[in-house]
Amino acid sequence: MKRKDILSYNKRALSITRYFMILVLGCISFVSRGQLQLDFDDQNINIVKWQGNTSNFKINANGQLQLSAPAAGESSIYTKYKVPKDSILADLYFKLQFAPSGDNFAKIYLFTDNIIESNANGFYLKLGENGSNDAIQVWKLNNGVSQLMASGNMGGISGDPADARVRFKIYRDGMWLMATDYSGNTIYEDDLEFVDQGFSLQDSMYFGLYCKYTATRTDKFFFDDISIKTIEKDTSAPKVLSAEVIDDHQIKLTLSEVPEATSAQNVSNFTVDNLLGNPDNIIYASAKPQEVSLFYNTKSIQSGINYTLNIKNLKDKSNNQVAHQISFVYAAKPKKGELVITEILTDPYIGGDDFVEIYNRSTSFIKLDSLIIKNAQKSESKVINTSAILYPGKYLAISKNTGFLKTTYNTPDTAAFLEAILPSLNVDGANVSLISNQNGQAITIDSFDYSESMHFELLDFTKGVSLERISLFGSTNDGNNWHSASSQVKYATPGYKNSNLSSGNPNTNEILKPDKKVFTPDGDSVDDFVLLQYNLPKPGYLATIKIYDAEGFPVHDLTNNFLLGAEGNIKWDGIDSEGNIVKMGMYIVYSKLFHTDGDIVESKHVVVAAQKF
Question: Alpha-carbon distance 387 to 575, whole Å?
Answer without folding.
Answer: 46
